[in-house]
């Protein structure tokens, strides 16, 4: 089972993830990128852990992609 982005332990810098940006929450549009920083301090979050990507975009993780 692939992680769904709700548990902090499943996410670490360097992973490729799909996130929903704040302005895309209504549509659910996903943005793919590589995690730079974890911004959520709690161990889990029902809407996904908030992260900053290497390109500076911030959003909540909806899917963690498998390593190639």
Radius of gyration: 11 Å
Number of helices: 0
Largest sheet: 4 strands, antiparallel, barrel
Number of domains: 1
Strand fraction: 35-45%
What is the mean predicted local confidence, pLDDT?
Answer: 93
Strand order, largest beta sheet? 1-2-3-4
The overall strand count is 4
Q: In angstroms, what separates the terminal alpha carbons?
A: 16 Å
Shape call: globular
**Fold-level CATH name:** SH3 type barrels
Overall structural class, as computed from helix and strand content, comes to mainly beta
Which residues sit in consecutive blocks of at least 5 with pLDDT less than 50?
none
Oligomerization status of the protein chains: single chain
CATH architecture term: Roll
Topology, please?
Layout: E1 16-21, E2 30-38, E3 50-53, E4 58-64
Antiparallel strand pairs: 1-2, 1-4, 2-3, 3-4
Please, could you describe this protein's structure?
The chain has no helices and four strands. The chain is mainly beta and 68 residues long. It has one domain: SH3 type barrels, CATH 2.30.30. A four-stranded antiparallel barrel has the order 1-2-3-4. It is globular and about 25 Å long. The chain starts with 15 loop residues before the first strand and ends with a strand.
Short description, anyone?
This protein is an all-beta fold and 68 residues long.
Keywords:
SH3 type barrels; single chain; four-stranded antiparallel β-barrel; about 70 residues; mainly beta
